[in-house]
Specification:
globular; cytoplasm; FAD/NAD-bd_sf; 13 helices; monooxygenase; five-stranded parallel beta sheet; FAD; FAD/NAD(P)-binding domain; 22% strand; alpha/beta; FAD-bd; 2 domains; D-Amino Acid Oxidase, Chain A, domain 2
Length: 387
Amino acid sequence: MNSPRIAVIGAGVGGLACARGLQVHGRSVTVFEREGSAFARWQGGMLDLHAPTGQAALRSVGLFDEFRAVARPEAQELRAVDPVTLALVHHEQPGEDEYFAPEIDRGQLRELLLGSLADGTVHWGHPVDGVTAQEDGTARVRFGDGTTEVFDLVVGADGAWSRTRPVLSAATPSYTGTTLVETFLDDVDTRHPALADLIGRGSLVAGVGARMLGAQRNSGGHVRVYAELEGVPLDWHEAAGLDLADTEAVRAHLLTRFEGWHEGLLDLLRRSDGGFANRSIHVLPTGHSWGHVPGVTLLGDAAHLLPPHGIGANLALIDGADLATAVATHDVLDDAVRAFEKVMLTRAKAAGEADAEMMAMMDDEKTRDIGAARQFMNDRMLGAEPA
């Protein structure tokens, strides 16, 4: 039997995990990515890969040892502090060999996955405009240059604003009312030692009401800083008369919003080494699903977009690995996709419900409730023994 023609749309971690899994099982696959190269843009902060999802996916596609070689278990540390006094109100300190949810830079994980693929698997600079289901159970991909190509299966791994999703669902992401304003610190240990001590080896968070400040260590002394604003309009910066490209004006505005907070926390904003990026948080409805359409499916954020609480990348990885395994273990391609969708949609619904419950626990006093909220999420979503 000829190998099915499979296209993965999007070279994020979920799409690449799917492609890697398919190749491990001897299946052909082509990944189409709109960006011009693997290094066209910065890939984001660090990811904590959970034992039953992200780590299980890397085991499935044969990359777990490579992951362990670069992952940082010490970065599982979480420090929550009072925003006014800087008193430590919650502290999660990993044990010597605790490997339940170690951190890895998203860029490192993506490079690991890309390096595992056969040469030429990813076609860079190939934006997709849309996908059409065909009567014979195949799907036609329409590229940005006007050309088209037919595949036996098209996997939409193209994120929140997926161009694949409309063939299956009319759902579109909705704004949650929460925005993250992101900046960064470089060489924090040598250039900002006081902030390095405050942040610790992993993540720092402080919050009250509708405001939160957080910092997240990446590799190489790089720290991402996040100012969270809740209950603000999508165009909050325009309403405030701000040009996001005006770094000093945005900095001054944020310092005003966090007025009265401890100077040590405000230094995360004062001493940042870069500009400020606006990250508005969008989600798909909890339990988003679709009627099965032969020849097309979705995974990751294209299927179940959640807030950035450490769940999404793990789900994308296990989605990709599960779909590859299903294709390899079913004689009929459409049966494989149906089996995958049943498992994936059930898991995504449970994750969305758990995330919503966790956020309800944190609504009033983030720092006061963060320990209980984290334990709740561990019990609901991380219910497996450490690797």
